Structures are given as structure tokens and as C-alpha cells.
Amino acid sequence: MRYGHFDDERREYVVTRPDTPLPWINYLGSEAYFGIISNTAGGYSFYRDARLRRLTRYRYNNVPFDLGGRYLYLRDSESGEFWSPSWQPTRLELENYECRHGMGYSSIGSRRNGIEAETLYFVPGGENLEIWRARVTNRRDSEAKLSLFSAIEFCLWDAWDDQTNFQRNFSTGQVEVEDGVIYHKTEYRERRDHFAYFACSEPLAGFDTQRDTFLGAYRSWDNPEAVERGESFDSVAHGWAPCGSHHVELTLAPGETKEVVFVLGYWENPADAKFDPEGSQTINKKLVKPVIERFLNSGEVESAFQSLREYWSELLGTLQVSTPDEHADRMVNVWNAYQCMVTFNMSRSASFYESGIGRGMGFRDSNQDLLGFVHMVPERARERILDIAATQLPSGGAYHQYQPMTKRGNNDVGSGFNDDPAWLILGVAAYLKETGDLSILDEEVTYDNEPGSESPLYEHLQRSLRYTLHRLGPHELPLIGRADWNDCLNLNCFSTTPGESFQTTENKEGGVAESVFIAGLFVLAAEELAQIAERRGHTDEAETYRADAAKMSEAVLAHGWDGEWFRRAYDYFGDVIGSAGNEEGQIFIEPQGMCIIAGIGLDDGKAVTALDSVAARLATEHGIVLQQPAFSHYYVNLGEISSYPPGYKENAGIFCHTNPWIMIAEALVGRGDEAFDYYQRINPSAREELSDLHRCEPYVYPQMIAGKDAPSFGEAKNSWLSGTAAWNFVAVSQWILGIRAEHDGLRIDPCLPKSWEGFEATRSFRGATYKINVSKPKGVCRGIAQVVVNGQKIKGNLVETHPAGAAVVVEVTMG
Ligand code: BGC
Ligand code: NOJ
């Protein structure tokens, strides 16, 4: 069953009933001010950092799941009946409910008793505020007298402290109300220079800022006392829980529409101009007022919204394709690219499954996010690379995460994951290939953010590679440290204490646990660094890297090959994991993907053998599971992976992030049908029909789909923030459709299903536009017969870089 449909023309997903199996969310903002919004207007907002600068409060794991957000209530003054036009929180039945999630905006509309309401929510480009534009229309044949109430709950900034430190926080909350604008200024009187404001375009009949006065004792958001009685209390919060609610009275003639604009925003004042009059405790509003006035104006709102739409058209225009498959088109052209932007912005910090207080920006995660994002806004990718690299440790190792506000690395979610440094090389390589901007390699970047420790970025990459090389185990394979890409393969942890974090608990010294996955990653990263070294004229260095990679490949073939697939690791004691000899966890997906992508086994048939094993042992109709057989009990020597019940997460779930590695590997061995088949199995749009089973949004990838060992096989979880977004984008655009940025141009090397006759694409690359037409006789998957560029046949399939502004026509014939 479906709960909506795609509107491809408008690049929107249209949810047509509010009671989706799980909240189906969207993101507002893509620079500094962000919001999460569900299909029933749930969610919250923050400035830059979901933990440290939270504007509105949100209670996770609530009942119902999604409660609290950007709410409006309509009340019919005659009958006294009130309802939420976004369904929640009153959940009264609506006619014509429709939520349209678009690129950086959502609009939620409905009708009840002849009153239509449609609210558009978005963040204008360059601003630290969000707009709610409500349009209320009277479809009755008589006049309607209505009240419109808004409601938000402020968070006292630090979202962690806000949820825990009540003995203090119930006494610190402060607001001001001036000219109908509600200002939330908790802690502004002391060290904060920022406040939030919530404004309304219409004259107010009343307002509330004390939550428990607005709601009334023993009531919740579905039944606020102010709304029920049709009159605000004009409460001013002192301590307790500051909220923001406006009350607007509307009288609408039959057929009449009225627009009411609300603006919720964040503002920082200069430290020496916080108060007005000076010496008082009153917020200086001189600087913020013009901004508020501007965005309460209907014309400004409309033009800001149009600019947002144009911004996204331009971004998505970087790659547009037309293939025989609507699901592929929709994901490549719109939703997968959009999700890549969101994962780039959020890393793994804030979603409905990531609380915003748990994790900041991941070192490995953000580097992988770059792979799917870099073609859209390379300047921001550049900035991100420099931020990440500045947290790298002098040893070449890495903090596992950093907070976006402070940009400093920390060990809050663990450290010593030995794969981390290698991902920096992959992120930088992707940036260089996209832009050709070698100057980034000369940027002076600190280690551990320590002033004075700077070295050129290039040296950071060298140290990354050395980090692995200097940490090899008895099989000449990389030591795994706390874990590798698979955070839950904690081979040195040996935790027996209930509740202890596998990610942060001290590791046991003296082990020799090694990772075949990191070996594959190293081979890939070494080749990338060799190519970069060549471009800097260091041919000798490039040779060394290639020799190191060759040695590592030999170690993989000698100790990492199990006969029918690549092994996964060696444990603390040097015993093999991911081998036919193991009772459980005999075959893992990660090394099959990564070793083949690195080129290991491509020339001796091992790659094909490994992929056949994946097909036979790991592939299911809902995607490829992480390993088999699932761990049926807890293994103290394996760690968190075996803590999950079989079929979930890293214990044999369909961990979607890894599936595109197999798609790429299939493309590398030329099996276009297999690559595309795997692509479709987890493609959210292709799973739309299964919404009752899948349950997550049909327009973005989840992190995981329950595997075949789970009772809920096929059910998705943890939507939005996952490396799945970037890697699927890479797999389909660069390896299946085969349009790949390289240092010297665009490589065109598709690997397609046999039945396709070709496809078309437009790709902007370093300022030029390439119109690419691929045609192929049926029956072929891969191989290029000829490439004609602007009428001239070229040698090979690398279309060289053209000058910015050029329009390049590329005719590709496969065969
Ligand atoms: C999850 C992993 C995640 C890790 C982050 C674990 O509980 O299973 O997917 O990467 O936490 O710290
Ligand atoms: C999610 C984490 O964000 C990512 O870094 C990790 O690679 C996967 N889980 C697998 O454990």
C-alpha cells in the first residue's frame, strides 16, 4: 500500500494521509539554520549544532512517536470546535490532507468543515530563520469567524542540558514580548549573545509564552486550554517552560483567503550592544527588527521561496539523467542528490533516529558524505575537508567525530577506529577529481586544532596512509583498533559489563586483531594518493604507494582469501573471522565490496567468485545482508555486532551502506543486470508499493532494512542519515551509468542492464556542460565501441576537460 505519490515535475513527495507508518520527515535549511519537519508538522529547529544551539524542544521516542513541533490550531468561534490543519496534535479527521515535501521546504494542507488551510514551511537562503506561511480559505457559503493559534516550545539552547538539568532550568527561562513578537532570551542576561524570536504578520488578539499556562494543567498539545476557550492568557514566562503562541482572529467571507506569516528565527547581537537601553536587561532589537519586518511581508516571502526553488534547480542541474527506469531517474535527479545534501549537512547528528545530542560530525562519515555531495557545491566540500583535516591527530589517526559548533575533535563516541584516516584520502581525491583544484593540497592545516602544528593538507594525506602502514599485524594486514567501518566489530573490547558502551570502553591491550576491510580500503586509498602524488610531480612517491598497495593486495590474497570469498578479519587471538570454518558469521559483505573496488581479484576470477558467494549467501529480495549466518548469541570476542538480535543492524541486517559497494563490484566485473538488480532492491522509490512493510519514507534511503533472520524482514529503520546516500549515488551515477569525474576529465564507462538501449544525461563539470547520449545494442552490458565528442571521434572513453562555459556534446556507443 502507498501513503502518497511522487510529483516528479515539482520534485515533491506528496503524502496523502497523515497516519504514515512512521513519521515521514523532511529538512528545512541547508546552511546554518536547520529544521526537521514531519508530515504532521512535528520536529524542531537549531542553529548550526543540534546539541549546543537548539531553538525548539523535541521529546524523542515519544507517544505518539512524533509529538511537538510547528503547530497551528484553527478554532471555529461559533461552534467552539478546534483542530490542527496538520492533523497532529489534535488528530481530528481531515478532508483533503496533503503534505508536500520538497527541496528544503514542506507544505501541509487540509480541509475541515469547509475551512481550508495550507502552510508552507521553509528557510530562506542566507537567513537564520524559518517562515511558516499559512493561508486560510473559507469554502463555506457563509461567513466564518475563526481563531488561529500558533504554538512552539522553546528549548533552553543546550539540548542535552535541557532534557536533564531541571533543578536549574525550571528557574532560568526568560522571554520578552514586544509589538507582538515573542523573544526567547534564556541566559541572554549572562553569557549568551543570542536569542530566538517568533513573530506574526497580523495584529494579535493575544499571546502566550508560559507553556503550562497555554496548555493548562494535566493537558497536552492536543487540547490546550487557551485554544479550547478561544482566548490566550497573555502569559509571560518566568522560569518553567517558555513557549511561543500567537492568537490571531480571522473573519473570512465565503471564498475569501487570508494569509498569515509567522517567522521563527535566531539572532546574535554584538557583545557590546546586547541591551537597549544600555545598562538595562532588555534585548537590543534594533538590528533584528528590520529582518523580522522584511520576512513578515508576503511579497518577500514569495520571492524568497522562488529563490529557494531556483537554488535547488541549479544544484540538481549538475547531473540530470533520463534512463528507461523511473525509479533510477527520480532518485538520481532529485531525491538521492537531495539526501546527499542533507547527510553532508547533518552527518549523523540530527534525524528522528539520531537525537542531535548523541553524535556530531563523524570523521569517516563526513568524508564519505563528500563523495555524493562534491559535484553540487564544491566550495563547501573544500571547507569541510579543511575542517575535518584540522581535527586529525599528529599520528595520522583521527578523532571519530567533532562538534560542528566548536569544530574540534572529541572522543565522546569512541576513538581508535583504524579505518578513519584512509577516508580522508578518498574525500580529498573526490574533491580534486571534481574540481581540478590542486591548491587545496597546499593549504596549511593544523593537527588536533593546535595552532602552530600546521602542515600542508598533502602531508595530512601522507600521514593517513602511513598510519595504516605502521600498524600491521602478524598477517601483514592492518590492525583494526577499536573497529573499522563496521563500528560493531569490536575485536579488542571484551565487554562483560551490562550497559557499557562498546564504542568507548577501554580496549584490552596486546591483541593482534586485523581487518581485511581496512586492507582493501588501504589499497584503494594508496592508488588515489599515488594519482595525487603524480599530479604534484612526485613520481617516486607514487611508485612507493603503488608498491605498498601491491604488497597489501598480496597479504589479502595470502591471508584474506577464504577459497570462495574474502575473509573479514582476524580476532584478538589471531583466529579468523568470516571464513567457512566459522560456525556463524562465515561471510561478510564489507570485504567483498571493498577488496573488489580496490581491484583485488579482478584479474584472477576471485572477484567473480566472491560476488557469486554474495549472491548465493547474502542476497535477499530486500537487499544484501551484512553477514551470514547471523550471530545467534553474544560473542565476547566480537563485541557489539553480536549484541543485536539476528537480522538487525550490523548482525545480519541489510545495512544499506554496504550494498552499493557490491553494485560497484558487479559493475567492475561487467555484470550490469546484477548491479542494477541490487540497486533496485533497496531503491526507496522502487519499494514505495511496500510501504506497509518498509514503513520508512519512500523517497530516501534508510540506514537499515531488517534482514532475513529478523521477524520483521523487509522493514526499514533509521531513515535519512547514512552513508547509504552518498554510496548509492556514487554506485548508480559513476558505475552503473558510468559517468565519473577523474583528474583529467570525465570518464564514460557505463555498466547497464542488458535490456536497456541506452540513456541520456547532462553533467556540469568544472564549468562546462556535457550532454551525453549513450546508446547500446541490447544484450551488451559494458564496453565502449566509440565516443564522439563535438563531432570528433576520440581515443578511449575519457572526455577531456573543456573550458568553463563550453557546451560539449558526447555521443557514446557501447558494444
Ligand atoms: C550502531 C552503529 C553505529 C555506532 C555509532 C552502534 O550502536 O550499531 O551503526 O555506527 O553505534 O557509535
Ligand atoms: C553507522 C556509522 O555512522 C558509520 O560510521 C558506520 O560505518 C556504520 N554505522 C557501520 O557500523
Describe the structure.
By secondary structure, the chain is α+β, with helices and mostly antiparallel strands. It is 27% helix and 26% strand. It has 19 helices and 43 strands. The chain has a ten-stranded antiparallel sheet, with helices on one face. Strands 6, 7, 8, 13, 17 and 18 form a six-stranded antiparallel sheet that branches. A six-stranded mixed sheet has the order 20-38-39-43-40-41. A hairpin with a 5-residue loop joins strand 7 (71-76) and strand 8 (82-83). The radius of gyration is 28 Å and the shape is globular. The protein starts with a strand and ends with a strand. The structure holds beta-D-glucopyranose (BGC) and 1-deoxynojirimycin. 1-deoxynojirimycin is lined by residues 348, 362, 364-365, 485-488, 650.
Task: Kindly summarize this structure in a few lines.
This protein has 815 residues and is α+β, with helices and mostly antiparallel strands. Helices cover 27% and strands 26% of the residues.
